[in-house]
Design a protein that fits this description.
single chain; 289 residues; 5 strands
Length: 289
């Protein structure tokens, strides 16, 4: 049976842990508000630009720009976006699990897979695995800015243009709400054309370009991919803060329940000790009669 002193120490330790988790929940909630505002402001623009580029790609000569060209090779790169810190529930585990499933499925189809990573958690996991890591970015989410999207997007554009890989897939957590995230596997390269059905018939078969088509694509396509890279980072940042807030809220409630259980056990143990002392006193008094 544990001593009363050890139980008091355990109760104090759990209370201190509860204070920490509660503080972390409040910090995550404050960061979530800012991250949520940023992604909700950036998401409509990013999605609309993506739709415009996808529509445009089926109306232009796809050989006019290297970012539009489809290749027959089977070199696939997977960009896995995780967090730099833990204590966010299953946020990183879900990403890693989906990435492993996708990589194994791609290899089963005969593809050669390389990996690029955003976040320390993904780096720590995959550097102990057999797949080659081409590039990694850590510390991005400490002070996330558009320059990070430019850096990552430009690197991916250059490597795709050089022929380092033939397809690029990005795996990340999409922010849905403060308590819900969804793992997304999104194809970045090559751009998939969309068919708008009846609307395409009303719009006609081609566009008039000013300036010319090549110059427009050269300016628009790199900007598009850099914007999409930044949007993915914003999605992941907001989802991470939401997951951490939910995880710390659960930890705080669990700590409160544990404190109640230990306190009840402490009171029962203390009462048993008092009862035993009283019985010893009564027994001694009876022996003196």
């Amino acid at each position: 049976m544990p001593s009363l002193q050890s139980l008091r120490r355990k109760i104090a330790a759990v209370k201190n842990t509860q204070k920490i988790t509660k503080a972390m929940k409040m910090v995550a909630a404050a960061k979530l508000k800012r991250a949520q505002d940023r992604i909700l402001a950036a998401r409509p623009y990013g999605h609309r630009v993506r739709d415009v580029i996808a529509n445009l790609s089926r109306r232009v000569n796809r050989a006019a720009h290297p970012l539009l060209q489809k290749r027959t090779g089977r070199n696939i790169e997977v960009l896995v976006v995780t967090s730099d810190r833990g204590l966010c529930g299953a946020f990183n585990a879900n990403i890693v699990r989906k990435a492993m499933e996708f990589i194994r499925h791609s290899e089963a189809r005969g593809a050669k897979v390389t990996i690029s990573l955003v976040g320390r958690k993904g780096r720590d996991f995959f550097r102990r695995r057999p797949w080659p890591i081409r590039q990694q970015w850590v510390g991005v989410f400490d002070r996330l800015t558009y320059e990070h999207g430019l850096d990552i997007g430009q690197d991916l554009i250059e490597q795709y243009t050089k022929g380092t890989f033939d397809e690029l897939y990005v795996i990340y957590n999409e922010f849905k709400s403060a308590i819900q995230q969804r793992v997304i596997v999104e194809k970045f390269f090559p751009i998939e054309a969309i068919d708008e059905g009846g609307e395409s018939e009303r719009l006609g078969g081609s566009y008039l370009y000013e300036p010319d088509e090549d110059e427009l694509l050269a300016a628009l396509l790199p900007k598009h991919f850099q914007t999409q890279a930044f949007r993915v980072l914003l999605e992941s940042a907001a989802a991470e803060h939401g997951a951490r807030m939910a995880a710390m809220d659960g930890a705080t409630r669990n700590a409160g329940e544990l404190i109640k259980k230990i306190t009840l056990y402490y009171n029962k143990t203390r009462q048993a000790a008092i009862t035993k002392e009283l019985m010893d006193i009564v027994g001694g008094a009876e022996a003196l009669k």
